[in-house]
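Example 4.3 (complexes with small molecules)
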Amino acid sequence: MNHVVNVLAFGTRPRCSLAGLRVKGNGLKNNCLVNHLTEAAMRKPETLSYYRATAHSAPERPRLQGSVAADVCVIGGGYTGLSAAIELARNGLKTVVLEAGPVGHGASGRNGGQVCTGYSPGMGKFERVLGADAARQAFDVAEEAKTLLVSRVQKYNIQCELTWGYVHGATRKGHVPELSTHRDELLRYGYGKTRLLELDEMRAKFGTQNFLAGLLDEGAGHLHPLNYCLGLARAAEAEGAVIHEHSAVTRIDDGAKVAVHTADGVVTARQVIMGCNAYLGNIAPTIASRVMPVASYMLATEPLGADRARSIIRDNEAGADSNFVIDYFRLSADHRLLYGGACSYSGIEPTDIKAFMRAKMLRMFPQLADVKIDYGWGGYIGITHNRLPDMNRVSKNVYYTQGYSGQGVVLSGMFGKMMAEAVMGDAGRFDLFSRIKHFPFPGGVLRRPALAVGMLYYRIRDLLA
Ligand SMILES: Cc1cc2nc3c(=O)[nH]c(=O)nc-3n(C[C@H](O)[C@H](O)[C@H](O)COP(=O)(O)OP(=O)(O)OC[C@H]3O[C@@H](n4cnc5c(N)ncnc54)[C@H](O)[C@@H]3O)c2cc1C
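Answer. The structure with flavin-adenine dinucleotide bound is encoded below.
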């Protein structure tokens, strides 16, 4: 059972929604069945998220203009790119980051903020693909990723409300045994921070009747994702990196020196690191086909007040359910409920995200029917075919990582760092992951329908569990 720990759990039993295909009564636009995400759509201005509304102030970073020489050009101002930039600059390399929007424009500024253990498909997948020893190293990387996150939060004084405690709740009888299977898998990897929760404890902890049992992970938790990302940007700059916002890369000319072009400028660098994930667009078609952008949506309620908030989540843990259409939730520091889920593989977008997500929230917490929804927003998660991260080279000196498959809040820090290590001449850990084979998703008109039909199968299986 692989999907217990992760929030968005694109595991062996993926939990993404086909809800997007139900076009009546749930606020979904019925304009076309297969609405491919164009590059423009991927970059469209977000509906104001709770995170943007509560973001720490950040400097305006100038757009790239003219020619600049650097040791390394990093493309993407999310966790992956910024993490790499911190490491490179810290080690004295002249590092320039190019970000198409503002810092945190992609998933890093929009996500559920759930700090997870391990990898999306579980360790069994690693064992099958890489063997037992390498799987153990990969697990160690995921744990080191947590340590790295905590150490950066401390070292750079990143105020991102990092809070420990994460509970995965089984909503169906058939899912209950999977909790102990997952606990046992983690124990085999020496991870003993989980504890099974019986029905009574789940009822005491959460204001919902939906959970039959749970798995508490005290080594996982939650944070304010955008403020964490903005903190990483500040850290990268403190180490000497230069960040240009609103500087979308339009072309990469490979060679001994790589020329990275934007509309108004060019960075010439010995090496390039790409951390563009589901927001990649068309600048590197060979890797774009290996990651599927899947939409996920969130809401934030009005502030509930401390007492009412604690009647929903008594111990302030992050929570997630065990369904294919996975729901994830947590409290904010100002006592709102943040509720996410409803992944859409179809490309059909809800016209009213707040109404769409409110209906889901009320299925978990019906007592919140009188509560106003202040914010609703969405973003794109990058998933790979096998749900394992895809870290490799596009060419000799262009590196990339993508496809954390719903679990990048923690992992991205280490994958950014491992790319920086490779650029600086130590590709040991980079090569551990670059050995993993990643297959492209079907192209053309089959791209989304094929995946959506696959998801329907799992959704039906889930309903029967
Ligand atoms: C709604 C939602 C909920 C999620 N919840 C969780 C969760 O609770 N826990 C968890 O672990 N993970 C979660 N995830 C996934 C997690 O957010 C991602 O794995 C992680 O943020 C990936 O970071 P990244 O830096 O690789 O990519 P991103 O944060 O997406 O950054 C990529 C950046 O590259 C930029 N870019 C793209 N193309 C170009 C270009 N041509 N030129 C310049 N810049 C470019 C983009 O503008 C973007 O800012 C969630 C994702 C979403 C969308």
